[in-house]
Write a structure and sequence with these properties.
two-stranded antiparallel sheet, 46% helix
């Protein structure tokens, strides 16, 4: 059976879209169900931990912090990681106006978020770790007269959760600190947005961009870092939990972006959505949606191609040649001063 080939410059019908996307939808639903099931499961390992030395001193005071309310709840972190990027994708369509750009961006974002979430819940379930407020939630009860009978390990100072008298659900949660779900979600969503903005604004490409583009591109990284950092303030996670979550989220964001766009760092092609059924021709060749950028500076997004702006001899060429013109050689408007472009969009 021949694969359905849909042109990238035309919006498909819902039926056509479903024919090429149904497997992803089914996979996402299955992964979501698996992730939710694992998230609700009790911690798998029986982890040993010390409480007191024989002289009564707490062994690990870093696990004795008080239980506080989360500064950023997990549901809020997940919503921010999904809705903020989607809102930016839609805002960019003011100029890009491409169904397939939005489609690929949202699908790639979901690849990143869902895969990262399932990855981290399996680690939480099978490995886990103690939250900074574990001892407060555990409420350990160790009778002094029988401490040597209930403990294990050297000098009988190691115990398991059987000595805990606190709420069972809170104890389960406090045994699943590693890795941080907040950090995983934040970096999976916001690093993907960072890659999208870099591609659409052409921050590192063939011209000198305005500073606001650099700020806009790195704003998602700041947001993700703030969400992760807040977890060390409310004592819900250790720093290494947040670092592990950030690494997982970042890896999934890069993977998800590259699955739906032609490249990550190649400024000539990293803005071009990939077709499911037609191979990308490569940099320098004419490709569908090669003008799908938000910026209009030096001819980007105006049908001038996506090349480096220089001809074979290193001389600035006009913007008509595919693969070699990005509008750098556009003629200035008469009487307006050398180097000025024809309209205000050209400087944004």
């Amino acid at each position: 059976m021949e694969p359905l080939i849909l042109p990238m410059n035309k919006r498909p019908s819902f039926g056509q879209w479903l024919k090429v996307t149904w497997l992803d939808i089914l996979t996402m639903a299955a992964m979501g169900a698996i992730g939710l099931g694992v998230y609700e499961a009790h911690p798998a390992p029986s982890r040993s931990f010390p409480v007191y030395f024989q002289d009564g001193e707490i062994v690990y005071p870093q696990f004795a912090y008080p239980l506080r309310n989360e500064i950023v709840p997990i549901w809020a972190a997940a919503l921010l990681a999904a809705l903020v990027p989607i809102a930016v994708f839609l805002i960019c369509q003011i100029r890009i106006r491409s169904f397939w750009d939005v489609n690929n961006a949202v699908i790639g974002l979901l690849y990143s978020l869902i895969t990262a979430a399932v990855f981290q819940v399996f680690l939480k379930w099978l490995i886990g770790g103690l939250r900074p407020h574990f001892l407060t939630v555990c409420k350990p009860n160790i009778p002094v007269t029988t401490s040597q009978e209930t403990g294990n390990g050297l000098n009988f100072i190691m115990y398991d959760r059987s000595i805990c008298t606190g709420d069972p659900d809170e104890i389960d949660d406090s045994l699943e600190s590693f890795p941080s779900g907040h950090s995983t979600a934040a970096f999976a969503g916001f690093v993907f947005l960072y890659l999208y903005l870099n591609a659409k604004l052409k921050v590192w490409s063939n011209y000198h961009p305005a500073m606001w583009k650099l700020i806009a591109t790195y704003a998602p990284i700041l947001g993700a870092t703030l969400i992760a950092g807040a977890l060390t303030i409310d004592e819900y996670h250790n720093w290494y939990d947040c670092l592990a979550g950030a690494i997982i989220g970042t890896v999934m964001a890069f993977s998800g972006y590259r699955m739906v766009y032609a490249s990550i760092w190649d400024w000539r092609t990293n803005h071009i959505p990939l077709n499911r059924s037609v191979p990308f021709p490569g940099a320098g060749a004419s490709a569908e949606l090669e003008d799908a950028t938000f910026t209009r500076q030096v001819g980007w997004g105006t049908g001038a191609g996506y090349g480096h702006g220089y001809g074979k001899e290193g001389v600035v060429q006009g913007g008509d040649v595919r693969g070699h013109g990005a509008g750098i050689g556009r003629k200035p408007v008469a009487g307006s001063g050398a180097g000025r472009y024809r309209n205000s969009e050209d400087i944004v």
